[in-house]
Amino acid sequence: MIGTLDGKIPLGPLAEKWRTHRDHSRLVSPNNRRKFEIIMVGSGLAGGSAAATLGELGYRVKCFCYQDSPRRAHSIAAQGGINAAKNYQNDGDSVYRLFYDTIKGGDFRSREGNVYRLAEVSNLIIDQCVEQGVPFAREYGGLLANRSFGGAQVSRTFYARGQTGQQLLLGCYQALCRQISAGTVQMFPQTEMLDVVLVDGQAKGIITRSLISGKIERHAGDAVVLATGGYGNVFYLSTNARGCNVTATYRAYKKGALFANPCFTQIHPTCIPQSGDYQSKLTLMSESLRNDGRVWVPKRKEDCKKPPNEIPESERDYYLERKYPSYGNLAPRDIASRAAKEVCDEGRGVGPGGRGVYLDFADAIKRLGENTIRERYGNLFEIYHKITGEDAYKVPMRIYPAVHYTMGGLWVDYNLMSNMPGLHVIGEANFSDHGANRLGASALMQGLADGYFILPYTLPNYLAGQTGKRPSIDHPEFDKAETDVRARVKKILEVDGKRSLDSIHRELGALLWDKCGMARNANGLRAALGKIPKLREEFWSRGRGVRVPGTGEDFNQALERAGRVADFLEFAELMCLDALERDESCGGHFREEHQTPEGEALRDDENFAAVFAWEYHGNPATAGPKLHREPLHFETVHLTQRSYK
Ligand SMILES: Cc1cc2nc3c(=O)[nH]c(=O)nc-3n(C[C@H](O)[C@H](O)[C@H](O)COP(=O)(O)OP(=O)(O)OC[C@H]3O[C@@H](n4cnc5c(N)ncnc54)[C@H](O)[C@@H]3O)c2cc1C
After folding, report:
1. What is the per-residue pLDDT across 615-643, written as a single tens digit (0 to 9) for each?
2. 348: which residues sit within 8 A by CB, 6+ positions away?
């Protein structure tokens, strides 16, 4: 039973909360740390940084990932940069301003205390990464360079060309390897967590399956940390790595952890448009490109088929600059995405199917020269060229919004602990600090803040009371969890159906994109809620449903993926339910019934200034999940209609 949902935000002035909390948190003495074993699921930027830091502090960490190396975590794909309130540009930035931009960017649906802490810690991340040797871009004189991202009027984004995630992950991986070599961190690659084990109501272990041999194993620990990333792939097509999934967090949800704001999905405005029905992945063109690229479509529908350079300046609609003069092309993602959809819906989209808008560098090249643009974004132009065959130095890129990030995730308190004692959740896997819309370059900031600087302080708060409580893996709760995992693997293989996994997943994705994507309405969501259970039933129907060849005792990627799609098929229903229940528009959650006369998201603060956190109550067909609300209290900022005009 869940009592009052308490975010445990420390009392006191906003700027003092984190320091006061640290000063009063419990500690584990150096000699006792080695007695604690921490299970870290995930070794992307969040999990990798947390495992390395906890190892350095002297704890014993078992770290799991499904890739063959931590270096292949999805974090490696991050392109554009990481925010920090260093104010190196002397352009008016500050911790408060980063805090305010983030709260406003999230459409006032995140906690003040958490977001302020994030802004505060952001500066430490840059120092830490520079010390590790992360090659951030520098000015000619050697100082760190910055660029701008959406929703900010300052330049606070640190970057390493278009490969920021890769360089940060290499830094993090070096720190992790140091601990692996020191024996404090034990790495379990190609090992998938399939369940959390609760002993006396506390998270004390996990059940895993080796993706090489199929072997199912038990691991006990003093605490479990999930750093398992986001679930954007529920939509089938997204910019996420193909492996990203919801399994770890969803299985924890089924064990009692609350799932917060599952419908909050970020649709990124600048992705390469889909080119065919059988495509399995979409590619991001980093938001950083909007520093120099100008977004436009023809003013007249009739011009959409013409080559872009034949459309004169006077016939172009730079719609972001027109609608949002203060922020222009750097309007936040939710707003820029909706604006792109709007012009395409009007019939002014370009490229195949009219599902594209131009991102044009001609002016920037004229102003700065091609070399400068190449230096700033060379690898992104190369990716674009490889995929489309077009040279964006000569013709504008064509871009369209795509699913990119999930603001929803497991509910956590200020200590990053879920409602399930011992279960901590960090990085994109938690419901995070981004509210209803994440600002660009803030995910890396949050993942590394959680891993390097927050969890290492808050985890001891829990561990300090746990000495000697680590259970044996022979505990009956482990027997039960392992039996359940084995039964599920067997059940998938026994379906022995006819439909390919991809065809079912694609159908689910198309339904979600249509009904719970960039725009949602009550009728559409109800229709999706009617269809998802039928698709799920089909997946499981013996002889007719999903076809998974091979066995469970071997390397079997179809089986791995089938387990994840099965979880998506349940989770999708929770997303739609959440979207239906939140009868307002905010950030990326755009309910068509609630919009301003200009077509912007219209919040209902009186009824919905709250985190929605869902509790699993058994099979959704018989007992729907129960909604808990955590009211959001704003003591410092005033809730206003978000404006970027
Ligand atoms: C194309 C792209 C570009 C981006 N660019 C930027 C950017 O420029 N700036 C920015 O701030 N953000 C960016 N983002 C967002 C950012 O990259 C992610 O939010 C962030 O990297 C997530 O990090 P993470 O550590 O939480 O998760 P991940 O990096 O996804 O790591 C998840 C880890 O969990 C493991 N895992 C998952 N499930 C299981 C399981 N069941 N069992 C065992 N292990 C499991 C995986 O193996 C992996 O190690 C971008 C996102 C995309 C898609």
Report:
1. 999 876 677 899 999 999 999 999 988 88
2. 297, 298, 299, 300, 301, 304, 317, 354
